[in-house]
Predict the structure.
Amino acid sequence: MNPCRSRRPLALAVSALVALSATGCGGSGEAAVVATAAAAPAGSTSYPLSFDNCGMKVTFQKPPQRVLILNGTSVGEVESFIMLGLEQNILANAQSYGVSDDPSMIGKIKALPTGGLTMNKNFDVPAEQVLKLKPDLVVSTWSGGFDAKTGFATREQLAAAGITSLVNPVNCAMGKPEATEQEKVAYRNQSINSSLEFIGLLGRVFDVQRRALDLIGELRARVEAVRTRVSNLPAKKVLIAYPGMAMMNANGLPAVMTGGIYDDVIKAAGGVNAFAGQTADATRTLNKEQLATAEVDVLVVGLFTPQEKGDAEAAKLFAAYPNWAAAKSKTYTVVSDGVYLGPLNAGAVEKISKVVHPGD
């Protein structure tokens, strides 16, 4: 997950989740922003390594050894570290989700050190705790993770303490009022490629380029294999709905995810988002009539908490919206973090494609 943040005191987690529909949490438009940093050459990294990250020059004298990963209600960053075998470089991790399209991720994330850190009212690690921990790198999924107004350490504070900071480049514009137009475009146009580019960036920073290239190649090949299989088949209307995120909707409806990486995952699986073309307000303002009259050939139930049961949630939605083609044919699948910005997109594409075009 890769949410935007609200500064209103009412449950930042709620307002943060709303942003998932605004950006799709994952596009290729950011390529220009991170091209120099994310390219992962096969050779060894030459240190010192310097590049621009969201308008701030960062320099690495060697691979970081004491990394703090901020929460940001995301798991994409910590999952990328894990899939690159960088667990030993993590001093403390604040990201967790509790349910995953790769079940092994749950235990792997839980096994990471937390550094005894606690969250402030804005659901991330406060400045004083970050500085006391003395990491050599702090990673945030969004620029807002370094906002002093919400109690977080600024990038300037960290630099003054000898600590490097890094924002997932596709999210530079998130929580950055002075974001450039290029950063805004990258943020709006997130895609599966965005997830792979962050892996490439980590490969260069931590001098594991070959590992990163191999992982990117494997994940990209899995997605492209599905794209090829479904390329000449008619696109079906797919709805991604998270019942457990009903707090995001003014009418208490399941959170319906549109745009960015959600649309890209659906397209790769051979479908088209049932609410394609909707604005960022869609999830917040969608009403029951709009949901009931939507064309839905395939339902994708998103799980937000471990307590939710996908089959039961699908049954509830089918009972509530019997006119959907998906309700009549009982066509659905269940995902969790695979549709968010992160390294598990290939699994979600494969899973969704099996119900969009079964047997093809």
